[in-house]
């Protein structure tokens, strides 16, 4: 089986019963590097951590249209990562005393 990058999809909400409900629903899986960058943003005091999203219009085998999604580290943060010491690069623990099991999401 082929290995695919972390991704997601948004499908039209066929169960929408009121204008307040979302037009699309779905989910997004994130790579470890993105999660670690979001965690680092929280540690830096960023109130609303950010990651970049990209989407492509696709059609499922069933004929149903959807948006295929991919999430990655924010472009601005990845540009800034080039200037970080190797010990702080994305994908590595921000602090040595925190394991992945302790991250609450």
Question: What labels would you give this structure?
Answer:
105 residues; alpha+beta; 4 strands; 27% strand
Task: Give me the count of strands.
Answer: 4
Query: Unreliable runs, pLDDT <50, ≥5 residues?
Result: 85-100
What profile does the largest beta sheet have? Answer: 4 strands, antiparallel
Quickly count the helices.
Answer: 2
Could you give the order of strands across the largest sheet?
2-1-4-3
Q: What's the N-to-C terminus distance?
A: 28 Å
If you had to describe this structure to a student in words, what would you say it looks like?
Strand 3 (51-59) and strand 4 form a beta hairpin. The chain has one domain (8-14, 23-89). Helices cover 18% and strands 27% of the residues. The chain has helices at 32-43, 75-81; strands at residues 8-12, 24-28, 51-59, 65-73. It is α+β, with helices and mostly antiparallel strands and 105 residues long. Residues 85-100 have low confidence and may be disordered. Strands 2-1-4-3 form a 4-stranded antiparallel sheet. It is globular and about 40 Å long.
Set down the secondary structure blueprint.
Blueprint lengths: L7 E5 L11 E5 L3 H12 L7 E9 L5 E9 L1 H7 L24
Question: Could you write a compact summary of the structure shown?
Answer:
The chain has about 100 residues and is of the alpha+beta class. The protein is about 20% helix and about 25% strand.
